[in-house]
Amino acid sequence: MQAAPTPIPTQRLDALANEILDIYSLSEPPVPIETIMQHPPRKLLPAAVDITDLSLVFGISEHRYEYRVAVARLLYRELCRYKDEHNESLPYNNDAARYFAAVLLVPAEWALRYIRRPLINLQQISEAFQVPDYMMASRLAQMGKRIRGM
User: Fold this and answer.
1) Three-state secondary-structure class, residue 84
2) pLDDT by residue (tens digit) across 123-141?
């Protein structure tokens, strides 16, 4: 019998994403994830992460902004490694990395502001946040919200 999956500590991951947004004083999409990776917050990650090889892997993709999602997941994995070295572990699994990427690239407060706009649809909001439409739909569903195109 397979063990039940470990629940994702959503509050911790939400707080971590919000801390990063606060450090960079970000309040509007899109989140500059490449800049964050090249100049990470020193208290969370002491050195830049080389992302040049990722562009080769994600250069051609079905989803235009998949690269940004991959960089956000990579940031999470690097944060996990660093915190683990300092005895502050975070769950190191794909579900947690996907969740972190979603909350960092699509902060709930920002998304709620956007979906209040008249006639906004999934494609427009995905473009504003520079994330694939499937990620935006999933994030809005996490928040219990729906817009045209979902």
Assistant:
1) helix
2) 999 999 999 999 999 999 9
Q: d(Cα 138, Cα 52) in Å, to the nearest integer?
A: 28
Confidence of residue 7 (pLDDT cuts 50, 70, 90): low
Torsion angle of the four alpha carbons 109, 88, 96, 149, in this order, in degrees rounded to the nearest 10: 10
The DSSP line for 30-76 is SP-HHHHHHS--TTT-SS----TTHHHHSSS-SSTTHHHHHHHHHHH
Q: In degrees rounded to 5, what are phi and psi of residue 118? A: -65, 140
Provide the 10 A C-beta neighbour count for residue 82. Answer: 16
CB 135 within 8 A of CB 98: no
Whether the CB-CB separation of 72 and 52 falls below 8 Å is answered with no
Q: How far apart are CA 111 and CA 128, in angstroms?
A: 10
pTM of the model: 0.86
